[in-house]
Amino acid sequence: MKKVLIIGATGTIGSAVRETLLNETDNQLTLFARSASRLKAGERETVIAGDVTNDRDLDQAIAGQDVVFVALSGALGRFANKIVAAMDRNDVARLLFITSMGIYDEIPASIGASGNLSHNSMLKSYREAADIVEGSDLNYTVIRPGWFTGGPVDYEITKKGEPFGGHDVSISSIADL
């Protein structure tokens, strides 16, 4: 049994990860969200209301965890800095961080190169977060999903530097990782 913290637990991806972990593991979950009142803790869950930019809130949530899963949007570079620092302070080494496809300009023209960072400035904060995570000493996985769908688990894993083969990914596929 592992202790898993989900930062962004009320969002679409965070909620799907929560459901998958509850149904397929015996892990203890800590659910961290600004709007924690929207969450009802189950038997294996703890809910923490907090701000990802507040060191005290992050330390409270991260202390004692085995894995941190981050599914946020917004100022991701700032959030990544705060989360990585809190993980270092609390000796937690495993991080899974959701960013976006296109942050490495890895989308080939055949499936829509306009989704690459060089054509889409909205991806800058996602790339900044990935750079911060990659520059850390953590055991990390940067998850770069494409466009979300509601389909079954079916995904392709690409490594940094490899071109994407497609762009649609089901929410359940992301949660399955």
UniProtKB/TrEMBL annotation:
The keyword Isomerase applies. It comes from the Bacteria. Residues 8-176 form the NAD(P)-binding domain. GO terms for molecular function: biliverdin reductase [NAD(P)H] activity; riboflavin reductase (NADPH) activity; UDP-glucose 4-epimerase activity. The keyword Signal does not apply. Its EC number is 5.1.3.2. InterPro entries: NAD(P)-bd_dom (IPR016040), NAD(P)-bd_dom_sf (IPR036291), Polyketide_Oxido-like (IPR051606). SUPFAM superfamilies: NAD(P)-binding Rossmann-fold domains. Keywords: Isomerase. This is UDP-glucose 4-epimerase. It comes from Lactiplantibacillus plantarum subsp. plantarum.
